[in-house]
């Protein structure tokens, strides 16, 4: 069974003078127990999609199911199965950290005793012990974010939504949250996350969906995306010396991206490596290459290429 | 813990962190009763005849002060939506496993208790300090009226708090509404000697219904038929506002 099923989802925001299509026929599935990454530039429709799947807003048309429950027809059933970290900081500023954690649990129908017990573990994991009695208003933005993320681990929901959840966190806490996400997924929970940190998605996600302007650009595993982006690869070269003629010859190879720094050149290519290697060997006969590296494109490069192509 | 109980617990924890709220909710109406009531009573040096009964002005004002408590509690609670929006928790709460109706009812439950405490405080001051002749046997009727009217005002004001994006817009709307609702009603003066347009406007004003209900319960003024009709009208007003507030929450994002 899929944890999330989305079918031809449309969302149009209408005001008196304008109409904004946030989602334009989006369809996908997320398998149970996997980590699903939703990527896209600002305004792509990621947050709208999360808002629909978490029942904050209804779709204009189309269908979305979470753990077999329809987000429009059975919103409370969906809410019983999800825990959500929204993009904006969401904490009760006037309350203490302890109240924030407990109230979140109570509002998710966790019995009082179980909530207190769970809180001890969460507080330890997120290093909130010394802040438990402090009013959230007085905490730093990073700590507020930590409290917000810690809250979702007060409940045992089969599906977790994280909309740019690690924004504002220090690298250590970000790593800890990422490890926790992986652990949750291994225990059978499904995680849908959106992030602007593409390396994070690369490390975490089993499947990735890239959207832009409300439409799907690509989806699949990282390998699928590499294939989709027409076999992109990056070449790093360091020459014995560099001149205008060399740069002209390298640019003639038609890289997607070209940067130079001192005697080093970085190029991003589309196509097959074999054909390029022959051409580089020709160049090396006239200008010696002291260092040569070739590797597959990372997610950021694939993402940029796909979004660029779409626009 | 049920969803509604969770919302009540949250509101309780929030209120006790801010003594200012409690001051405005509970003590300002009492101060109104003592200061304005006594001042007006002494300055005009006359009593009112309402439905054939002679009443001191402070007695006449007491139900109005309780109505004021209910409205001000409802206003502060509705204003709380802006604090929730500011802290980002407003949208997160929409993902909690409770219905929109439960969220609103949970919020109103705690505040109804606050209204009842405020009313009890006003009644105690009225009886002990100002010798208001309260009908104790009708106290449950008065309490029921306070519950329904606090809920009604809260649901009405929530519609604005949820729909409006700016806190200053909400403050402007509610302050203006408060002035018109209070002064175009039977809160401060009997309607009988007022111009016809004033009387007609006051009769369709829910604040008049509320004050009349409370006056009937506390002092025994007004005909039972009018009390019954105004109670039904306010109950309908409350249900309509609840439905509209739920719709506003659904459309909030």
Give structural notes.
The complex is a heterodimer of chains A (311) and B (253). Helix content of chain A is 37%, strand content 30%. Chain A is α/β, with parallel strands linked by helices and 311 residues long. In chain A, the strands form three sheets. In chain A, strands 6-7-8-3-9-10 form a six-stranded mixed beta sheet, sandwiched between helices. Chain A has a four-stranded antiparallel beta sheet with strand order 2-1-4-5. In chain A, strands 12-13-11-14 form a four-stranded antiparallel beta sheet, with no helix packed on it. Chain B has 253 residues and is an all-alpha fold. Chain B has helices at residues 3-16, 19-44, 57-87, 89-93, 100-130, 139-163, 167-183, 196-203, 206-219, 224-250, and strands spanning 48-50, 53-55. In chain B, helix 3 (57-87) packs across helix 9 (206-219) and helix 5 crosses helix 6. The radius of gyration of chain B is 18 Å and the shape is globular. The model of chain B has no long low-confidence stretch (mean pLDDT 90).
Please report the two chains with the greatest interface, counting residues with C-beta closer than 8 angstroms to the partner's C-beta.
A-B, 31 and 29 residues
What's the overall geometry of chain A?
Answer: globular
Q: How would a textbook summarize the main sheet of chain A?
A: 6 strands, mixed
Work out the helix count of chain B.
10
The percent range for strand residues of chain A is 25-35%
Unreliable segments of 5+ consecutive residues of chain B? none
What series of H and E elements makes up the topology of chain A?
EEEHEEHEHHHEHEHEEHEHEEHEH
Please compute the radius of gyration of chain A using only Cα atoms: 23 Å
| N-to-C CA distance of chain B | 27 Å
Oligomer: heterodimer
Overall mean confidence score, pLDDT of chain A: 88
Largest sheet of chain B: 2 strands, antiparallel
Task: State the share of residues found in helices of chain A, binned by percent.
Answer: 25-40%
The count of helical stretches of chain A stands at 11
Q: What proportion of the residues of chain B is helical, as a percent range?
A: over 70%
Structural class of chain A: alpha/beta
Overall 3D form of chain B: globular
Order of helices and strands of chain B: HHEEHHHHHHHH
Radius of gyration of chain B: 18 Å
Total E-strand runs of chain A: 14
């Amino acid at each position: 069974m899929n944890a999330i099923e989305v079918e031809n989802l449309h969302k149009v925001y209408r005001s008196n003078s304008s109409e904004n299509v946030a989602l334009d026929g989006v369809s996908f599935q997320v398998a149970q127990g996997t980590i699903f990454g939703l990527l896209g530039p600002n305004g792509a429709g990621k947050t709208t999609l999360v808002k629909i799947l978490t029942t904050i807003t209804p779709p204009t048309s189309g269908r979305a199911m979470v753990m077999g429950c329809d987000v429009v027809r059975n919103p409370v059933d969906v809410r019983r199965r999800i825990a959500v970290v929204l993009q904006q900081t969401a904490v009760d500023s006037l309350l203490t950290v302890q109240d924030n954690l407990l109230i979140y649990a109570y509002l998710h129908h966790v019995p009082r005793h179980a909530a207190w017990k769970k809180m001890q573990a969460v507080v330890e994991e997120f290093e909130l012990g010394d802040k438990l009695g402090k009013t959230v208003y007085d905490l730093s933005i990073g700590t507020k974010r930590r409290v917000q993320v810690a809250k979702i681990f007060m409940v045992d929901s089969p599906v977790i939504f994280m909309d740019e959840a690690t924004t504002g966190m220090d690298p250590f806490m970000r790593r800890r949250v990422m490890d926790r996400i992986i652990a949750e997924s291994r225990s059978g929970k499904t995680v849908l996350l959106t992030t602007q940190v593409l390396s994070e998605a690369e490390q975490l996600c089993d499947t990735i969906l890239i959207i832009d302007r409300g439409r799907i650009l690509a989806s699949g595993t990282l390998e699928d995306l590499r294939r989709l982006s027409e076999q992109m690869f990056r070449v790093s070269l360091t020459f014995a010396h560099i001149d205008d003629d060399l740069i002209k010859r390298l640019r003639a190879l038609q890289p997607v991206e070209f940067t130079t720094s001192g005697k080093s050149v970085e190029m991003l290519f589309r196509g097959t490596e074999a054909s390029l290697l022959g051409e580089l060997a020709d160049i090396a006969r006239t200008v010696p290459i002291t260092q040569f590296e070739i590797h597959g494109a990372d997610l950021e490069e694939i993402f940029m290429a796909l979004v660029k192509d779409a626009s | 813990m049920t969803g509604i109980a969770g919302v009540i617990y949250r509101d309780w924890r929030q209120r006790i962190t801010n003594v200012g709220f409690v001051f405005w909710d509970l003590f300002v109406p009492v101060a109104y009763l003592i200061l304005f009531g006594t001042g007006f009573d002494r300055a005009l040096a006359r009593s009112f005849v309402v439905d054939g009964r002679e009443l001191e002005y402070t007695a006449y004002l007491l139900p109005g002060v309780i109505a004021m408590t209910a409205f001000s509690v409802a206003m502060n609670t509705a204003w709380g939506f802006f604090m929730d929006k500011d802290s980002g928790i407003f949208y997160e709460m929409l993902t909690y496993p409770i219905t929109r109706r439960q969220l609103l009812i949970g919020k109103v439950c705690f505040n109804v208790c606050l209204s009842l405490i405020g009313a009890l405080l006003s009644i105690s001051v009225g009886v002990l300090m100002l010798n208001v002749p309260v009908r104790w046997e009708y106290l449950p009727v008065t309490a029921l009226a306070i519950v329904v009217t606090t809920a009604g005002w809260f649901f009405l004001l929530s519609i604005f708090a949820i729909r409006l994006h700016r806190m200053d817009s909400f403050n402007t709307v509610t302050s203006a509404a408060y002035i018109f609702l209070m002064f175009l009603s039977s809160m401060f003066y009997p309607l009988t000697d007022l111009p016809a347009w004033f009387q007609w406007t006051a009769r369709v004003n829910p604040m008049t219904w509320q004050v009349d209900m409370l006056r009937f319960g506390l002092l025994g003024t007004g005909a039972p038929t009018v009390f019954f009709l105004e109670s039904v009208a306010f109950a309908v007003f409350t249900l309509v506002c609840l439905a509209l507030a739920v719709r506003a929450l659904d459309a909030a994002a």
